[in-house]
Amino acid sequence: MILAKVVGHVVATQKCDELRGSNLLLITALDDEQQPIRNKTWVAVDSVGAGLHDIVLAESWFALNKDRYKAMSVVAIVENVFRDA
Amino acid sequence: MILAKVVGHVVATQKCDELRGSNLLLITALDDEQQPIRNKTWVAVDSVGAGLHDIVLAESWFALNKDRYKAMSVVAIVENVFRDA
Amino acid sequence: MILAKVVGHVVATQKCDELRGSNLLLITALDDEQQPIRNKTWVAVDSVGAGLHDIVLAESWFALNKDRYKAMSVVAIVENVFRDA
Amino acid sequence: MILAKVVGHVVATQKCDELRGSNLLLITALDDEQQPIRNKTWVAVDSVGAGLHDIVLAESWFALNKDRYKAMSVVAIVENVFRDA
Amino acid sequence: MILAKVVGHVVATQKCDELRGSNLLLITALDDEQQPIRNKTWVAVDSVGAGLHDIVLAESWFALNKDRYKAMSVVAIVENVFRDA
Fold first, then answer.
1. Could you read off the pLDDT of B56-76 as tens digits, one per residue?
2. Of B19, B20, D76, D79, which one has the greatest count of Cβ atoms within 10 A?
3. The pTM is what?
4. How far is CA E63 from CA C25, C81, D84, E45, in A?
């Protein structure tokens, strides 16, 4: 999963059935100092109520249960990152 | 999903059965200022009636329902991108 | 799907059952001017009778029907690319 | 699978059901000299009891049995790497 | 599939059930002149009896039959590469 920051959202009325009713978050991957990496932005379906500036986990190598998750999804809101590289 | 711009289309008469009848869009990923990124172009099956210069969402890590989607697909037309990085 | 050019083929007698009888094409991704990109080469199973120097589509984010496609596959031969970036 | 080092962990109370009870490890890909590569960090579900500074294998191109593995996962602890490039 | 060279192997006693009994090969992607690319190394399950310095094909975008293949796998040993870029 990628460690990312919610930096916005997108509005799309014309979309496939699977995305109907989904909140589409704009997320940017974080570097080793947890700063957004330029031009590493995706759009992910929210599944945990994440909001602007939250640090989140997004499953980009789609591995989740396909019946519940219709596309790349935000799957956790992160409280703490412990790093000891 | 990637945020991309429709920059053209391709014509292919000889193609696998799954792509028969599909409209094949040329899409380029957008950077943080929503400008096309050089050499980041894919071909995606249209599923929402997207046209030239539309801003779209494309599911590149194929997570969509495999019965309905046969390859990388354009799954939404984006009206607005709200970014507060 | 990636827009690529057939630049050769590989011969492999010792291979998994799924690849038996497959024609294994060497394909290189194309840049925005449709020139091969250095060191962006893959090997894909041919499924449409593509030949040397053909411009093709290859499904690298495997989304096609897994019963018919056993690995990354060439799924179309492209006649024309219309680009208006 | 990627060869990586456990460099920490993350804490996330608000998360999807599939991740409940999982230990979320912060892992960084290793270069040819087995040193961490900058900004190549992911979060993976532990499935083998890996700990801080362990060298591990993580399945990023999700291929494992989807019923048992819910996201990118650490699937082995590596004792030895034999390289003769 | 990626064109790679076997540059070693890893030993891991603590591993998930799916990898038990597997031979874990260290493989490095090859460039256009068929030389190893720095820091483009993965670990793949051998399924064709490949050995040190063999040129192989590895399916990284997991497209193979999930019942037989548990992770990124070496699926062919290459005798010849014909390139006419």
1. 999 864 555 556 666 788 899
2. D76
3. 0.91
4. 17, 28, 29, 14
